[in-house]
Amino acid sequence: MVVADPLGRRNKVLRVIVDTYVDTALPVGSECVCQNCGLALSPATIRNIMSDLEELGYLRHPHTSAGRVPTDKGYRFYVDNLMDAEELTREEQASVDAILAEMARSYKYFAEPLSKTLSNLTRQLSLVLEESKLHFVGIPNILDQPEFRNSDYSRAMLQALEEGDEFVEILKRDIQKEGVQVYIGSENRYHELECCSIVVSSYKVRGKVAGAVGVVGPTRIAYGKLVKRVGYLAGLASRFREA
User: Pick from 168, 104, 157: which is nearest to 135 by CA?
Assistant: First the structure.
């Protein structure tokens, strides 16, 4: 396992590869890792570590590139052990606080402003579940991602979204758990969503789960950023519904 590395070198290399790939959508090579991992290691040593990570299933090697990209297993280890959560900026908090006033004016439109705000914060597709009804905003955001320029991926994802049942089941899955849940690629169980990651959190009314909010994107998403923003909006939803 990656954690068995006594110097933590594999962890640092994996973290750099995930962070860089999330930013660039391009396979990451050893020279880039050398420049950013903070380790006094040669490119040859970095390549050996990358090969080890590939053998362990944390990276894969696209046929047309010398670089590596994370696998679902690599993302999972990153989310559970390596990522830094990115707090909301003051500007983001101000925009989120503004939604509270909009929601307070009319309960009827609760899902719409909530999902719009979450989609704007994350630049991904946002989902809000209320009484088994799915509300979503931000299809253009997800279609702008390089992964979904492949018509097969985008068609499958949009079909699943239109039908709604699979997304509703995912939002309800483990909904009683506290905190934000992350489902990466093949963890979603549905073939149509194996190219997606879903970050979701429940919200409560009088101590009982009343619904869920979440975002959908490619597996190459900024998990640390999304986890904080989904959690913040779920807390906002709970406070609003309790008011």
Answer: 168
DSSP states of 18-87: HHHHHHH-SPBPHHHHHHHS-----HHHHHHHHHHHHHTTSEE--TT-SSBEE-HHHHHHIIIIIPPP-P
Q: For the range 115-119, what are the long-range contacts, defined as Cβ-Cβ under 8 Å and sequence gap of 24 or more? A: 115/213, 117/233, 118/213, 118/215, 118/229, 118/230, 118/233, 119/215
Q: Is the pLDDT of residue 18 over 70?
A: yes
Q: Which residues pair with 212 in a beta bridge?
A: 129, 202
Distances (CA, A) of 191 to 156, 185, 187: 9, 9, 10
R_g of the chain, CA atoms, integer Å:
19
- pLDDT at residue number 82: 94
| Sign of the dihedral defined by the CA atoms of residues 19, 25, 30, 34, in that order | negative
Question: Which pair of structure tokens corresponds to residue 206?
Answer: 């009088």
Q: What is the pLDDT of residues 154-174, one digit of tens each?
A: 888 888 888 888 888 888 877
What is d(CA 185, CA 84) in angstroms, rounded to the nearest whole number?
A: 20
Query: Torsions phi, psi of 199, nearest 5?
Result: -115, 120
Alpha carbon of residue 222 to chain centroid: 6
CA distances to 71, 95, 100, 102, 160 from 243, rounded to whole Å, are 43, 20, 11, 14, 34
- How far is residue 16 from each of residues 11, 54, 125, measured CA to CA in Å? 9, 15, 26
